[in-house]
Specification:
A hairpin with a 2-residue loop joins strand 5 and strand 6. 41% of the residues lie in helices and 16% in strands. The N and C termini lie far apart (41 Å). By secondary structure, the protein is an alpha/beta fold. The strands form 4 sheets. It has a 7-stranded mixed β-sheet, sandwiched between helices. The protein folds into 2 domains: 134 residues, Aspartate Aminotransferase, domain 1; 240 residues, Aspartate Aminotransferase, domain 2 (3-Layer(aba) Sandwich). It binds 4'-deoxy-4'-aminopyridoxal-5'-phosphate and glutamine (GLN). The site of 4'-deoxy-4'-aminopyridoxal-5'-phosphate has 14 residues, from helix 4.
Length: 384
């Protein structure tokens, strides 16, 4: 194995899901729903498979999906992207992130990202030979925040990209307009590109401080932003791996240049089905959010009753909790012991930090599960 990949073991998600299967635990670790997405989407996929759409689709993605992404960006975020040249389809957000970084970073270039960060970020930055410059999100009473001075200090002459994930996994933080404006101003000052991971764009709860706002919608930012999302989270089909990138022509064509040699094209019959899902009425998106918000509230109640100090989650599939009141000091040890103690799997957040001390006492629970699964987890956690 090449040196730049040696620090990376098996992903924590695969490791914790395997632990859940091995121990028969309720899996609140890896974030995937346990119900299927909209019936019209599933029917459209079956129809496409039986209708002969089983060969290589066009490299940038099937035209109806690019058109549907374009209409979605306009309807929800007021952003105009030409389906022909400003939108490409990828193998989930994961490939979109990797292709964007590999396309834009020379070896030694720096990528500013907020930690804890989704685990593929560090690996994609390493694959490009780039250097990550983490800015730590710290838990406080109102949620998670960063120190503006620390953010500024992370920028420098080698900064090429800012990798921004909002709503944020694993914390559930939604970046506020003021925080986004600070980031945008630094992108302008240091001539950096923003690569945004917005896979949870439709999961901002009604009690969040602010609605979701793509940084691309701030003045001057559309020209320097690659906006990434995916069908997996919004339409409960994480195994389909259909994602997309929207941005100005020059940046999108750079990402496409790389993407064509990573996967060439992606699942042909699933793309028209995702186009159908994106055309869902606004009521679908609202019901989806309300359902997850209710699940969040119930799980938070159960975690609090079990003795965790629950931290605020404003969005995503996830809530984080402090294990200190339960006598825990190390999240990894705690999560490895949890199946034995009560038959539940969670994910330690310290693996998403460069600063090994920052998230040491914090663990993440996923609530994108059927109500009876959440109830079972709550019953088991009460044994702690
Ligand atoms: N980014 C974040 C923040 C995620 O939580 C995930 C997990 N699904 C991904 C990217 C990956 O998305 P995809 O499955 O579409 O590759
Ligand atoms: N995004 C999901 C999570 O954070 C899982 C993704 C994965 O398994 N790579 O749990």
């Amino acid at each position: 194995l090449v040196a730049r990949m040696r620090p990376f073991g098996t992903t924590i998600f695969a490791e914790m899901s395997a632990l859940a299967v091995r121990t028969g635990s309720v899996n609140l670790g890896q974030g995937f729903p346990d119900t299927d997405g909209p019936a019209a989407m599933l029917d459209a996929a079956a129809a496409a498979i039986h209708g002969g759409r089983n060969q290589y689709p066009p490299g940038p993605g099937v035209p109806e999906l690019r058109a549907a992404v374009s209409a979605h960006q306009k309807a929800f975020w007021g952003l105009d992207y030409d389906p022909d040249g400003e939108i490409i389809v990828t193998a989930g957000a994961t490939e979109a992130i990797a292709a964007s970084i590999l396309a834009l970073c020379e070896a030694g270039d720096e990528v500013v990202c907020f930690e804890p960060y989704y685990d593929s970020y560090a690996a994609s930055i390493a694959l490009a030979g780039a250097v990550r410059r983490p800015v730590t999100l710290r838990a406080h009473a109102g949620g998670y925040g960063f120190d503006p001075a620390e953010l500024r200090a992370a920028f420098g002459p080698r900064t090429r990209l800012v990798l921004l994930n909002s709503p944020h996994n694993p914390t559930g933080k939604v970046f506020t307009p003021d925080e986004l404006a600070q980031i945008a101003a630094l992108c302008e000052e240091f001539d950096a590109v923003a690569v945004t991971d917005e896979v949870y764009e439709h999961l901002v709860f009604t009690d969040a401080d602010a609605p979701h706002m793509p940084i691309a919608s701030l003045p001057g930012m559309r020209a320097r932003t690659l906006q990434i999302s995916s069908a997996g989270k919004t339409f409960s089909c994480t195994g389909w791996k259909i994602g997309w990138i929207c941005g100005p022509r020059d940046l999108v064509s750079a990402a496409l240049r790389v993407k064509q040699f990573l996967t060439f094209v992606n699942a042909g019959p699933l793309q028209p089905a995702v186009a159908v899902a994106l055309d869902s009425p606004p009521s679908y998106y609202e019901a989806f959010r309300d359902d997850l918000q209710r699940k969040r509230d119930r799980l938070c109640e159960g975690l609090t009753a079990a003795g965790f100090a629950v931290l605020r989650s404003e969005g995503t599939y996830f809530v984080t909790a402090d294990i200190t009141p339960l006598g825990g000091t190390d999240g990894v040890d705690f999560c490895l012991a949890l199946p034995e103690r009560c038959g539940v799997v969670a994910v330690p957040t310290q693996v998403f930090y460069d600063d090994a001390t920052a998230g040491r006492h914090i663990v993440r629970f996923a609530f994108c599960k059927r109500d009876e699964v959440i109830e079972e987890a709550i019953t088991r956690l009460a044994r702690l």
